[in-house]
Amino acid sequence: MIEVEVKAKIDSFEQMKEELERIGATKTKKEFQEDIYFNSPIVDFAKTDEALRIRTTTENDNTNIFITYKGPKIDSKSKTRKEIEMAIEDSKKCADIFEEIGFKKVRAVRKNRQYYKYENFEISLDDVEGLEPYMEIEIGLEDGEDYSEAQEKIFALFEKLGITDGFERTSYLELLEKL
Asked: What is the enclosing helix (H) or strand (E) of 27?
């Protein structure tokens, strides 16, 4: 799958919730996410612009765990990249396997995320520990689909919500590493 994603710093979660309600977006869920990022023993993911993480999500009493690989960004306007994700049962055992074969833990990124649905967009308001408020808008495409039209639609939706600057191509991990 190709994930076309754009994030922007926002002034206020409350203001964005009002804007999302105004355009008819529907709140779908709220969850806590903890992402544990790893670096490869072969290549430096910070240099190749890749990511490998174990994500644990908690919504009410439900917990889900995933391994996610994100390939390098494939354009200069957004965080468009190949993404491969798989559900797993035990994050600790998975982390142990990664470390036994030479992968190194880099950092944990923790956030409370509120999801909204608008047309075929997934929108999230992200309260990341250590960062200011952010909003992400994304669309998933099949391999081979043209992502430039999806990017244009994402930027048009940001504009509809009153956001015309503050866009960020770096990941939350990278933003936290800069602090």
From this structure: strand 26-39
**pLDDT value at 14 more than 90:** yes
User: Residue 35 forms beta bridges with which residues?
Assistant: 55, 109
Name the 3-class secondary structure at 124: strand
pTM for the model stands at 0.90
Contact between residue 163 and residue 24 where contact means Cβ atoms under 8 Å apart: no
The residue segments making up the domain with residue 141 are: 2-178
Structural domains in the chain (count): 1
Average pLDDT over residues 23-33: 97
Tens of pLDDT, residue by residue over 87-142, are 999 999 999 999 999 999 999 999 999 999 999 999 999 999 999 999 999 998 88
Catalytically annotated residues: 37
| CATH, residue 41 | 2.40.320.10
Residue carrying the six token digits 């520990």: 129
Cβ-in-10-Å burial (0-12, 13-18, 19+) of 56 comes to middle
Beta strands per DSSP E along 60-103: 62-70, 81-88
